[in-house]
Amino acid sequence: MRRIALFLLVLALVPTIYVRQQFPPPNPDDRVFYHDLLPGLRAGGAPPRYGALTLVGAWQLTSPDREFGNFSALAVRNTHDLLAVSDRNAVMVFTRPDQPLSWRTWQRETIHPAWSGQEIDTDSESVSVDPRNGQVLIGYEGAGAFHLFSPDFSRDRSIAAPVLLEWPNNQGPEAMRQLADGRTVVIGEVFAHWWSRRRYPGLIWPGLPRAGQAPARFELVMPEGYRPVELAQAPDGRLLVLGRKFTLGGFRTVVTMIDDPAAIRPGAQVEPHPIAWIADPRIRDNYEGMVATAEADGSTAIWLISDSNEMVWLQRTLLLKLRLARGV
Known about the structure:
With about 325 residues, this protein is mainly β. Helices cover about 5% and strands about 40% of the residues.
């Protein structure tokens, strides 16, 4: 009887066990092609402008890999490379296409479930790279934990965060960033209150989340109907929040700004102000990833990547580079 009970216990635990062996090397056949869209988007030679942002780069990314796409978050890996995660349990490191270098891409899975058919912890929705050590923190929908990966994704550990289970499976930690002051900020896509379509719950950890550590809470107040899908920090310290709205005419995007990161504090209601609305039908898509980078001329660039949502006949994987106007 004890053997039967032990067998049933092991069987119940199998779906949550992950293979921790070293991942196979990336497949060299996972090629990614960049199609430059900017020449066709220029009207009379002038690049399109959306509020305080000017479009200075636009690429459509394609690949023969059937699992390619569905990118839901973006991070800066180093001076030349960006890192995107997808809700198909994949990560892609790629050279910024504006760099005068040989472009390269590197793709692989993040977590390997040991139980065939299980998708526990594999719908990655948010990512942050620690610039001090290159470690990668990923948030997943429907999971009560983060995963912290080594820079090459050969090792990882789970960080229990039971507070994440308060959010629905498909409206979890949609936006996350480790700020320059050391704090980790996470924003959920679920409404904070049933009576408001503008307020969303936010969590604050004083540093890298520790297992079981209770975060402080705040609320983010977005423009009506727009859900927060990404959080980024500009080189000057200001915060950017990407908002997405679905309408019968397609997706709409807003980029908003929080002038002072200190505004995010326990108990606060933080309302970022819009700096750009993107509804151009030529590049309209489901943008979910965003980062900000410092440019050689001292300006700030904002990068957006879209999530194709497995609907390749309707949506594309687009990468945009937009320059923030000086003085904004």
